[in-house]
Structure formats: C-alpha cells, structure tokens
C-alpha cells in the first residue's frame, strides 16, 4: 500500500525554487530514508509535506492516503496523522509544555471521535514517557523548548510523537547535535512506534542514525529532486563515495 505519493513537486521559498520536480513514493509501514547534501532541499521537502507557511508549492501533488493535500492547512494535515520533528524545534516562551501537548492530543482525539483525556490521565501518560525517554520531570512544566539543550529538544519532539501516535512520521535530522545516550533514547522511542502500519521518513545527511533506525528504502535528494532510490545497501556506497558520485539515473 502506498501511503504517500509525491508527484512532480515544485516548491519555492521566497523567490527561490528549491524543489524542482520531486517524485517520491512511500509505502505504508516502511522506513524511507532521505539522504542528501546540505542545501539539497531536505528540510524544504519536510515543510512542503506538513504545510509550513515558508514554503510555496507552485506545481505538482502530494497525495496522502489518496488525497492531494497541497492546499490543506497544516493543522488538518496534523489531524490526519502527519507529524514532523523539526531540525530546529522552536522555543515558545510562556507556553507550558504539558498544556501545549494536551491541547494537541485532545484536538486529535476529538477529530477521531474519542473522548478527551482529562489532566490527570494525560499527565500520567506524559510522566511515563518522560521517564522512558530519560527526560527530567521538570520539563513537563517548563515553557515549550525554552532553554532546552539540543538533546532535550529532540527528546521532547519524540515525546510529542509518542503522545500523538501519528500515521506518517517525518524526522528531519533527528540525530543532529545528539550525544550517544540521547541518540539511543530517541532511536528506541522511534523504533517502539514501528507497528507495520505507521510510516517513517527519516531525513539525514549522515548515515549514523541509520545504524539505529533500520531503513527499508534509501532515496538520494540532490538539487531539489530524488535522483536515486535503492535498498539499505546504498548507505555503504554513499559513505564510501559521497553524494558527488550519485548521478541522476
Ligand atoms: P537541506 O535541509 O537539504 O540542508 P534546505 O531545504 O534547508 O536544505 O534548504 C534548501 C535551500 O533553500 C538552501 O539553499 C537554503 O539556503 C534555502 N533556504 C532554506 N530556507 C530558506 C529561507 N527561509 N529563505 C531563503 N532561502 C532558504
Ligand atoms: Mg541544512
Ligand atoms: Mg535541513
């Protein structure tokens, strides 16, 4: 089953065209890795899929669960199960971490026709996951990401992911700035979310994270297009030869 099919996607930021006819097909339940050099358009792709306002799609389609979502609001994409862990998570002073997350979780539950979680039920689950991810309990009531270290921000992204139970998870350089303990905690959290239905798009320019989260497919993104798709064996070849050696088929 195809969960997402991106066809001929053109997108720009300001006046600059970044995605230049990108095609990508994702299978349900699989881990797809996007690898590519800095500036290739990887983060722009993640923002185009989630509907970030910086990115303007000028042509092409993003078919998700059979519908073109290009004109959907970001909130509606999230409600339909798309989740992005940002390369650089934003700090939002004055917004309580637990309050923010409970609002998001309950919006999703409402959308699914489920009863809202009350504060006690929600906090019990949040505390369980905070412990599991090796986060400090005080993070629950701090302002969202404010003054969090790089590793704490990434753990907090994974916490959100685990609470929201998305269908399509996009991880943009989740490994950047992580020490080995944080990398392990974050990867274990992600691997626990694998259930054969949920799909993952793991964006990275280093192969290290792929030692922890095993990909089914590797796609190479260069200059705004996917130029190669292969199995996990491609990782070793990229390590050896670099992105420069990959040319469009
Ligand atoms: P990657 O994630 O692969 O490193 P990005 O998608 O972040 O690449 O960026 C692709 C290109 O778009 C780069 O040349 C970058 O400088 C440019 N770009 C990204 N964000 C902006 C922005 N807000 N304004 C102008 N140019 C941008
Ligand atoms: Mg970059
Ligand atoms: Mg990036």
UniProtKB/TrEMBL annotation:
Where the record annotates domain ABC transporter, the positions are 4-248
Keyword terms, alphabetized: ATP-binding, Nucleotide-binding
CDD domains under this entry? ABC_FeS_Assembly (cd03217)
Q: What PROSITE patterns does UniProt report for this protein, alphabetically?
A: ABC_TRANSPORTER_1, ABC_TRANSPORTER_2
- InterPro entries xref list: AAA+_ATPase (IPR003593), ABC_transporter-like_ATP-bd (IPR003439), ABC_transporter-like_CS (IPR017871), FeS-cluster_ATPase_SufC (IPR010230), P-loop_NTPase (IPR027417)
Annotated GO molecular function terms are: ATP binding; ATP hydrolysis activity
Keyword ATP-binding part of the UniProt annotation: yes
One Pfam family name is ABC_tran
> Per the similarity annotation, which family is this?
Belongs to the ABC transporter superfamily. Ycf16 family.
Please give the name of this protein.
Iron-regulated ABC transporter ATPase subunit SufC
